[in-house]
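Structure first, sequence second, as always.
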């Protein structure tokens, strides 16, 4: 395919990409907002919602990983790959690997923190999930900042990913962003 029409991703991959990406941004924003609230029913509600959403996104991440492992993504067009300096190819690969790792690490650290702090997760207020670790205040004190820093790391990688996509779209004009668009170019 010419560089302005590179091979698109499968529609399932596109849906998973955008749902997970937009949900992660929303969940990060809620996480930042809720931690600044004083103790209140609203804060408790948001913490519960944050935990539910984290479990749902963990499940979606698993689905996305299974899809990726069973459906090879389209290769970068040869002209695009040849035009990319080695550091950009390395950044491209490292960003994707880092994002996939953090798709799992962030919610699992949050689940472990919630369990260690003695606050079980009751999915949608209906289904209690098993504690990931036993209640342990010292462990909770370690896990809380790990969850936060992993979330910040994921936010940084999301920004890097978005910046790279926008660079390809507006500066390189190589059509790569259209590979993740709904419908066909």
């Amino acid at each position: 395919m010419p560089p302005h029409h590179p091979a698109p991703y499968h529609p399932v991959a596109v849906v998973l990409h955008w749902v997970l990406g937009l949900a992660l941004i929303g969940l990060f924003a809620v996480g930042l907002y809720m931690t600044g609230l004083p103790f209140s029913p609203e804060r408790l509600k948001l913490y519960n919602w944050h935990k539910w959403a984290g479990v749902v996104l963990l499940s979606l991440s698993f689905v996305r990983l299974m899809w990726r492992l069973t459906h090879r993504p389209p290769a970068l067009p040869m002209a695009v790959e040849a035009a990319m300096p080695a550091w950009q190819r390395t950044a491209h690969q490292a960003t994707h690997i880092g994002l996939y790792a953090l798709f799992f690490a962030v919610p699992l650290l949050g689940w472990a923190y919630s369990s260690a702090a003695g606050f079980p997760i009751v999915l949608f207020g209906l289904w209690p999930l098993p504690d990931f670790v036993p209640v342990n205040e010292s462990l909770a004190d370690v896990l809380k900042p790990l969850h936060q820093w992993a979330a910040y790391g994921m936010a940084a990688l999301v920004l890097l990913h978005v910046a790279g996509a926008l660079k390809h779209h507006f500066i390189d004009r190589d059509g790569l962003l259209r590979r993740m668009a709904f419908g066909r170019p």
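Margin note: The first helix runs from residue 11 to 35.
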